[in-house]
Amino acid sequence: MLSRAGRKWLDEVWQAATETAARTPPLSPLPGAVGAEIAEATGGSTELHDARYVVIRTGYATRIVLAEPTEQPAADPAWFGLPGRAGVDLASTDPAVVREMVDGVRRLASAGFDSAMTLPEDVWTAYLITATREFQKTLAGDVVSWRELGRETVDELLRCGYVIRCLEEALEPAPRSL
In the chain, N or C: fewer CB atoms in 10 Å? Predict the structure, then answer.
């Protein structure tokens, strides 16, 4: 269990991540295509897709908020087996490349997440609990049930969003301005 100061810090990270997600411009072509593919993976209504994409973008923004102050590891292009930089934008329209990047993001988000996000597991778990509660309050409704935004789903999508930001960092070594 986190201390009062730890919970306060997590609430500040959550607030900063949701604000950053709201003001972050659209993702560049390849990360954007990967995020859209992951959001659509389980099918469902447009509203469910949109809700899933909000969670992914919040995971992406979480990486922006946490990376520098918590000294998260730099994104390694080898994590993704990236094509040459000149072909990245064109690759975003190639379903085979997008599928390969989706597989890479999912693999890193599940089995290799600790290489991209080095905060203690209990900190991530507390963040996940906060995120799940907030997403269920704000995104669930008549069309998207709170069950479709359960803890396991939110965890998967936040991690994927976080790793998609790593993919973007690997594509563009210079930070994006917000």
Answer: N
